[in-house]
Here is the input.
Amino acid sequence: MKKLSYLFLLGALCLPALQLRAQEKPKAEERVKVPTPVKVQIVFTEYDGDKKVSSMPYAFTVITDEKIGGNYSTSLRTGIRVPIQTEGKDQKTTYMDIGSNIDCGIKSEDDGRFHLYLIFDRSMLYPNKSSEGERLVSEPNGLPLVRQFRTSENLILKDGQTSENLVSTDPLNGRTLRVSVTINVQK
Here is the structure.
């Protein structure tokens, strides 16, 4: 009878320890995220009414779940540097960056979709004359006018999906800028 009592007591003491091990087991089986290369294509398309005026595509690869300096990030910088003369007694030439800057990070979700973090910064020079010589933008000092488009966006997309939800209208000429983003997992 004493042996049976000891076995019962030993079982009662071991039961909580076995329950803790059973609860710890799922943690060991958690899914490990594997870095995956994803091709990102971004297209800036400008329209004058219904007429497409220009289309500027950009494509690059982002590694999912890759952290650089605490951020999930790949950067693309492209453009030109435009000389600008300062006025006054000490005239100097400075340069202004004109073009596209795109920052992108991707985090893989447990359901197979991807969370994209995007920052767009695009600047363009206004033409001051049309192809027929007509003056389009009046700027008395002859200095260039610069259009600026900046936004940040968070998207959740599946492999092969395209998002076309950014539209911006230029206040000076009424043209619209549309941005589409497509992702494709690289095998």
Summary: Helices lie at 2-28. The CA atoms of residues 45 and 55 lie 4 Å apart. The chain has one domain: 34-185. The first helix runs from residue 2 to 28.
